[in-house]
Amino acid sequence: MSERAETLLRRMVEIPSVSGDEQRLAHFLVEELRDWGFTTHLDEVGNAIARRGDPDAPMILLTGHLDTVPGGPLVRRDGDLLYGRGTVDAKGPLATMICAAADADVRGVQYVVAGVVEEETYGRGATHLAECFRPAVAVVGEPNGWSGVGIGYKGRIMLRYTVSRPAVHTASPAEKASEAAAAFWQDVVGYCASVSTGEKAFDRPIPTLNEVTGDIEHAALVISVRVPPAFDLPAFERHLRSATRDGELVVDDRTPGVRVDHRGAAVRALCAGIRARGARPTLKLKTGTADLNIVAPRWQVPMAVYGPGDSALDHTDDEHIALTEYATAIEVLRDALDLLAAGLRG
Fold this sequence. Notes:
The chain folds into two domains: 3-153 and 257-345, 3-Layer(aba) Sandwich (Aminopeptidase); 155-255, Alpha-Beta Plaits, CATH 3.30.70. The protein is 33% helix and 27% strand. The protein contains nine helices and 16 strands. The protein has a six-stranded mixed β-sheet with strand order 1-2-6-3-7-15, sandwiched between helices. Strands 10-11-9-12 form a four-stranded antiparallel β-sheet, covered by helices on one side. Strand 10 (206-214) and strand 11 form a beta hairpin.
């Protein structure tokens, strides 16, 4: 791997960029990538945008997120491993995109690399990107391992439920707020179980009780539900509103699941790059949610998700990436870009 590629990733990881506070990293990339042959700017929501090639040519768009969750290990190198928040999720994949696009054949195409904000919260950066760009093909940067290609991500519903009941003695048979909240949670669990259509985790809605607070007078729940692409969001919401027990329900996020065509040009190009390096590609369906959920329905073009790193290390205190894997992923993606560009040139 080139020293320049390693230095870029380390510098990105060394700049803290918790969701909502990505400005310093975005400014760094806007300045740094001009030396890599890109024209750059910050857009209206703070995304870092870098472009190579003719702006009138067909666009290959590569998007990864700048933001991280808080915490993480100290940034350090231990042999082949680079530790630090974002090495996996998802500065490693974004740096891979930068390095590959900087070295790819630009004849007859343009490459746009977008470092977007607030993926870890509500996807504000990707939402803006989806409105402003119309690529011919796109790749989203998330960790799937250098020989893995992501083709599907579950959606997410975020719920806040609050309920109140009059003060009563604990010996009273009257329903307490805490009991109403517990019953509402069981309604969510029961509904999800009733509409499950498959054995795999990707095909089943999975509810999580993120927060629970309260007592017999006032209680509150925060619930997230990861849902597959075929999940009927309106029917779920109608059921919940019929089961509120005079409580208040607020739906903060309605992100549907998505699955791209595994026969599309982006998936095929990445698989070819992986095979060229002696591995068998693995197509992955992920139980989390990514910016793919936001941009794929809007763009309706060949897409895939790619990036080095073990997603099991996301958000952990042991987050790290193997630099040899990072280097291999750059080569895979660069070859995939060349194949995609050749296809767009006809």
